[in-house]
Amino acid sequence: MRRLFLIAALLSLNVYAQTVHNGEDVLRAMHDRYASSWYQTVTFVQRSTTYKPDGTSTAENWYEAALLPGRLRIDIGAPSNGNGYVLVDGQATIIKDNKIAGSRPLVNMLLVLGFDVYRQDPETTIKVVKGEGYDLAKLRDDTWEGKPVYVIGAEKDDLKSRQFWVEKDSLLFVREIEPSRGDATKLDDIRFIHYQPLANAWIAAGVEVYAEGKKVFTEDYSDIQANVKLDPATFDPEKFSTTHWEK
User: Fold this and answer.
1) Rounded Cα–Cα distance for residues 194 and 44 (Å)
2) Helix axis angle, 23-34 to 122-131, nearest 10°
3) Residue 74: alpha-carbon gap to chain centroid
4) pTM of the model as a whole
5) Torsion on CA atoms 188, 226, 146, 125, rounded to nearest 10
6) Which end of the chain, N or C, is less surrounded by CB atoms within 10 Å?
């Protein structure tokens, strides 16, 4: 009986492997693996460190809350300062001194590939990723931190095209390369690190950002909480000053 079970398991793995032909298949597989278990909300305190060219660094605490898919709030510095931004379905609103300072379209690919992909219809994710310029027809195998990964969007040895890396076994997002928002002639190499279990799913408790081969920014998460109740007003820019999840 055990032998039959092992044979069936191996056959199912082969069928699974045969269905992954491109980036669209990977995004569908990511969704299907965790659709029934991934948390809907998450909050955490983020220690944000910026590394300067002169070798010095500065750090401050950010307070983040997400309602998946598509909603993210960041309080930059002490919440009482009233600075941060709210991202709702691809529209980012900037808050300064508890007042709306501006709004513009913005797709946060880390939110899309690290969180939203597991909660929303995969066809929606595919549309968003394509819209951001990732070539989902390109798929290759590689290794990252000693583990096999899918690389979507770039051929072998190409570290300049828009691309994202997904660990094969866990189907977790681990790396993304994209043009820097501050200077499109440069590339940001962003890595999700320190994955840990969270509410029948996972979260990367750290993020590293490299530019021109040098580490320029890191995020370290603490007080991570999943599936907490969040007032819908948390993600309403007009109510930024009166609604704080961390209080």
Assistant:
1) 15
2) 140
3) 14
4) 0.90
5) -60
6) N
